[in-house]
Amino acid sequence: MKVGVIGCGYVGLTTGVCLAELGHTVVCVDNDEEKIKKLFSGKLPIFEPNLDKLIKKNKKRIKFSIDIKDAVVSNEVIFICVGTPSNPDGSPDLSYVENVAKEIAKYLDSYKVVVEKSTVPVETAEWIKKTIQRYKKNNVEFDVVSNPEFLREGSAVKDFLYPDRIVIGVESEKAKKIMLKLYQKIKSPKIIVDTKSAELIKHASNSFLATKISFINAVANICELSGADVEKVALGMGLDKRIGKDFLKAGVGYGGSCFPKDVDAFIWISEKLGYDFSLLKEVKKINEKQKELFAKKIEDTLWILKEKMIGILGLSFKPNTDDIREAPSIYIIKTLKQKGAKIKAYDPKAIQKMKQIFPDIEYCDNPYEVAKNSDCLVILTEWPEFKKLDLKKVKKLLNQPIIIDGRNIFDPKKMTKLGFIYKCVGRRSDV
Ligand code: UGA
């Protein structure tokens, strides 16, 4: 099938490349000229495992362009994958979506299925439909479909090709058939619903996962106060199939471009519809508090922060990505700097991006350089390479053998045995 994808961010690029992998011919469009230039020269504008390999493998079936017309004309299915950033009041800014809808209307040359893939509030598909209808210049028919994406950064390709489910929100039999044909090769269950339900599935899923994380973080705080171990509590809870073990990892709070924004948007849309989703407000509050509590933990361990050198391991909001949007590291570094601490940092992928926010901190080439002469080591992202650190070497390099771990990557007993003062989240560190 011939497909156009508008927006080459994490979702758009992964969608385009994976659809090519499924055998479709894809035109990926973005109005960011730099991004398209990079893609033309075979470079990816983002780091996402396996995406580069799939682009190379399917290069005959993928074209890149800065002209939205190329995504529309003579393509049967057009995906809208542009950003929906938060406005200051938490509502999503849908102006990019509206602009794209207007542009699609301009170039509509034959029947098309317009697919909303960006995360949007319920009722957006209706607005896209109205907008295209208003601006189109002929009688060409089209359908608008909601097909939310559930991929995670860092495992986006796998999540796209082997999803738990594919949600398709449609209002016409014709569009349903086309969408089923598009995803024919993917064997996962396909849920066919109306567009509003599809839109809600996405916001409700992300908000539920964020709730799970805030819940376990709240439990972690109770564990710290009572002397229990949150890892054990999460294991015991997670083995109950009704609860499930995923997304029960306590830590320094969730970040990224999705959960914080989608929780805000879901609170906002609920309020607009006349419902006070106070549970979600609390989820957000717990997440913010979690970062504050962690910064306090560093201060409580080191006492005076002024002039102390703090080594940070991990800047991205989670492993296997260079994305630092809403990363807890930003809040923690800002707070430590405000209190006069000096910062050294290392991340396998996110240093370039972090330099744009904190150009004045010291960036290192590896974790050992960070440890050298630092007054403590703080872990903010659970990159696999941190789990394999030579801890004896780290101990020798540090001014004081102090590790404050926001992701619980080490065993507290072993750390104490090795002679570390080891602080983590929701687990006793003096055992
Ligand atoms: C999330 C969802 O998981 C995807 O299903 C969805 O498609 C995507 O948002 C989106 O809406 O586009 P993503 O933001 O890439 O994906 O990352 P996650 O793996 O969900 O992690 C989000 C944050 O939660 C990270 O900061 C992570 O460290 C944190 N987290 C996750 C925890 O603190 N504990 C956990 O147990 C799991």
Spell out the blueprint of helices and strands:
Elements lengths: L1 E5 L3 H12 L3 E5 L3 H8 L10 H7 L4 E4 L2 H5 L4 E4 L14 H13 L4 E5 L7 H12 L6 E5 L9 H6 L4 E4 L3 H10 L7 E4 L1 H32 L3 H9 L20 H15 L4 H25 L6 E5 L14 H11 L3 E5 L4 H7 L4 E2 L3 H5 L4 E4 L4 H4 L3 H7 L4 E4 L6 H6 L3 E3 L8
Parallel strand pairs: 1-2, 1-4, 2-3, 4-5, 5-6, 7-8, 9-10, 9-12, 10-11, 12-13, 13-14
Helix pairs in contact: 1-3, 5-6, 9-11, 9-12, 11-12, 12-13
Bound molecules: uridine-5'-diphosphate-glucuronic acid.
Uridine-5'-diphosphate-glucuronic acid (UGA) binds next to α9.
Task: Characterise this structure.
This protein folds into two domains: 2-203, Rossmann fold, CATH 3.40.50; 238-423, Rossmann fold, CATH 3.40.50.720. 45% of the residues lie in helices and 14% in strands. The protein has 18 helices and 14 strands. The strands form three sheets. It has a six-stranded parallel β-sheet with strand order 3-2-1-4-5-6, sandwiched between helices. Strands 11-10-9-12-13-14 form a six-stranded parallel β-sheet. A two-stranded parallel sheet has the order 7-8. Helix 5 packs parallel to helix 6. The protein is elongated. 46% of the residues are buried. It binds uridine-5'-diphosphate-glucuronic acid.
List keywords for this structure.
431 residues, alpha/beta, Rossmann fold, 2 domains, six-stranded parallel sheet, 18 helices, 14 strands, elongated, binds uridine-5'-diphosphate-glucuronic acid
